[in-house]
Amino acid sequence: MIHVSRSHAGVVLLAAVAPLALAGCDSVGRSAELAASPSPSLPPLTVAVTAPVARATGVPVSAEIGAKVAGGTVRSVRLVDDKGTVVPGALRPEGPTWVPGAPLAYGREYTAVVTAAADDGRTAQARTTFTTAARRPDAPEQGSGLYLFNGNTYGVAMPVAVEFIPGVPQRDRAAVQRRLFVTSTPAQPGVWHWVGDGSQVFYRPPTYWRPGTKLAVRLGLAGMRLSNGRYAAVDRRATVTIGRKLEMAVDNRTKRMTVRRAGKVVRTMPVSLGKSSTPSSSGTLVVMEKLASTIFDTTDELPPGEAYRTRIAFAQRLTWGGEFIHSAPWSVGDQGYRNVSHGCVNVGPDNASWLFGQTLVGDPVTVRGTERRIGHGNGWTPWNLTWREYVRASALPVPAALRNADRKVEPRNSVHSVDSRM
User: Fold this and answer.
1) What is the pLDDT of residue 393?
2) Which CDD domains would you find in this protein's record (predicted)?
3) Residue-level pLDDT at 69
């Protein structure tokens, strides 16, 4: 097993959220509950702002605007700062709460106006004025990373993969998950799944993304305090595209890889997998990283006489533990017949070069028949679970129709030094 540097997620570009068509605001600095006069046969329409409360100070820059409505629904929210700048944002689909499209500014006064409407066209408004915290808290930062880069194209198995350093405590995961937003076009439902110590959380639909899907992702965490005493200081965003469907299947019995594009076989190639003392991992894996040239170095892991430091071409990472698909000219005679690697999928130079030119980060790789199963979280492993297993690790309730989806789901909006093995 070799040491290849684990790449960290980059900070992705912030993108503006399109503002809603919002009602006007004609006064500031007070909270009110107003009712539209109903006709004798209609219930009254009332609306009140529940958060932030009127004249609140020290409000986190992650604040959302909460409302309570009777006799109607929230139609719009208008949030304006003390310089008259309108803050864009959107209502949550599941309830009368409005989320700013970006963190609020420190030490600023804001006025929110909530407009509710009844089915018969009556409207009512309520407002509140509050002030955000004067400055960023003096607290350790909660690290986060998003393994999507704005404008890139990914394979159909690409999960929305988020990393936290340190892991998010169990008691905070529901609140954090509520601030993780994914919109897919065309709409495909999905669920967040927490891994172990909370250092990783994945989002995926029940089946692979449709080719051509657009994903808009926001980690709206800036301003959140966690129970571990840390403070989330950064919002992250990415808008990406899902490319064509390409799948790789590796069979230890035949020692061959089959490559399919859009369901059709385009190439088969002999492979050599991990020998019995260092077996390759079976399961559904995902290409995590592509390196045209790198160095595998096992000098800190293997005893003298077994360790090596070797330059490798066309390496495609499958696990954090150091399993790759890569060119292995030294094992060409073994490929298709016997396993001689330290856990990687060895292929010949020509096949490795061709495959490297075909794949995207996010393409699925299914390995079958080896002596070891992939450990959950050792790479982007959410596809290695059944859907019912997967949804159990959401920190928020999953709607019954989505929880029981298994294979068929009706589309709907979802807002919601290198180490390696040879």
Assistant:
1) 98
2) YkuD_like
3) 97
Select from 101, 132, 163 the last residue of a domain. 132
Span 69-98, pLDDT tens digits: 999 999 999 999 999 999 999 999 888 999
pLDDT at 257: 98
Angstrom distances, CA of residue 139 to CA of 134, 231, 258, 405:
14, 6, 51, 42
Pick the more confident residue, 398 or 15. 398
Same domain, 250 and 239: no
The DSSP-derived string for 63-118 is --EEEEEESSEEEEEEEEETTSPEEPEEE-TTSSEEEESSPPPTT-EEEEEEEEE-
Residue 250 sits in the same domain as residue 207? no
199 shares its domain with 268: no
- Return the pLDDT at 309: 77
pLDDT interval class at 416 (50, 70, 90):
very low
Are 290 and 282 a contacting pair, CB within 8 Å? no
Residues 223, 262 within the same domain: no
Picking from 74, 108, 132, the residue at the C-terminal end of a domain is 132
Residue 90 shares a structural domain with residue 191: no
Q: Tell whether the model's pLDDT for residue 3 goes beyond 70.
A: no
The structure's pTM equals 0.85
Q: Do both 234 and 298 map to the same domain?
A: no
Provide the residue count of the chain. Answer: 422
Instruction: Please say if 326 is a catalytic residue.
Output: yes
pLDDT for the residue 39: 57
pLDDT at res. 395: 98
Q: 128, 418, 106: which is closest to 292 by C-alpha?
A: 418
Q: Please report which helix (H) or strand (E) contains residue 201, including its range.
A: strand 200-204
**Of these residues, 326, 342, 376, 416, which one is catalytic?**
326
Q: Is 344 a catalytic residue?
A: yes
The domain tally of the chain equals: 3
User: Which structural domain range is residue 233 located in?
Assistant: 136-243+385-416
* Residue 367: predicted pLDDT: 98
Phi and psi at residue 9, to the nearest 5° = -65, 140
